Amino acid sequence: MTQKEIEQLFRQHYAQMTRLARTLLYDVEEARDVVSEVFATLLGADITPKNIEGYLLTSVRNRCLNLLEHKSVRAKFERAYTLEMKNESQPATDDDRLKRLMVYAEQNLTEQTLKVFRMRHLQGMKYQEIAGELGISRVMVYKHLTQAMEKIREYIIR
Length: 158
Hints:
The chain is built from seven helices and no strands. The chain is mostly helical. 84% of the residues lie in helices and 0% in strands. The chain has two domains: 3-88, no CATH class; 94-157, Arc Repressor Mutant, subunit A (Orthogonal Bundle). The chain has helices spanning 3-25, 28-44, 52-88, 94-108, 111-122, 127-134, 138-157.
């Protein structure tokens, strides 16, 4: 697309695009930045979408969602970092962390998932050994471990 075509699209769709971005982001400056990035990308690319309005609005929505996801991840990291810094004044040993983790696991995992988790991570058993001892398939061992790790990640991120 030529610069002139993009300027025409800018005049035609800017207001609608910024409204969408403001609706998703609740921030006028960020909304403007997102719309500007979409047009900058369009200017740098050699593409001409068939449905230009749909393309522009979808691009704005996707960039807004990416920005919100980035903010979410950053906020989680900042919370975790802040908690870690608070806890550094009272350093916890690895044993303390493991004990807290196991208490959380005992409260939040099913009995079978907890057994599989303990056998794998505390006793160091292989999937096949766990499957044989519990009378389940290796796939079920994998599924139980996946469930356990998801719960533990939730605990660590909080």
